[in-house]
Design brief:
2 helices, globular, alpha+beta, 5-stranded mixed β-sheet
């Protein structure tokens, strides 16, 4: 039986292709689930938040900086496409929980896959690696 996450990964790749982007699913790699226009994408689908926060870690595994480039988070029917540098904390690890609505500038921000920051986005450290 296909998992909840697997179905989102498939739908995400199909949506990216329908938008004219080059996309494929990468099953079994672990750190990322898809590649879109050369960006490694970690896909997460969440329906519930604990005190406004959504857990993005994989079990006890904390993602490390550089394992993927963009987080595709589907939270309550809203898609956020968040560049990895926005999720960095001190050191080499990334946040394990995020508050989705703090990333409103990245709602349906498909332009990140064309090297563009969305309108209203805050400047990000290391953003040059993603946006040119």
């Amino acid at each position: 039986m296909r998992s909840f996450g697997f179905a989102f990964e498939e739908a995400f790749v199909s949506d990216a292709k329908a938008r004219g982007l080059t996309a494929c699913r990468i099953p079994g790699v672990g750190a990322f689930d898809a590649v879109v226009n050369g960006y490694r994408v970690q896909c997460k689908r969440k329906e519930f938040a604990d005190r406004g926060n959504v857990r993005i870690a994989k079990g006890q595994h904390r993602y490390r900086r550089g394992e993927w480039d963009v987080l595709a988070l589907l939270y309550r029917d809203t898609l956020y496409l968040i560049p990895e540098p926005l999720l960095c904390i001190n050191g080499e690890t990334l946040r394990t929980t995020i508050t989705p609505w703090r990333y409103d500038a990245y709602r349906d921000a498909w332009q990140v896959f064309n090297g563009e920051a969305p309108a209203g986005a805050e400047p990000v450290e290391h953003q040059a690696t993603l946006f040119g």
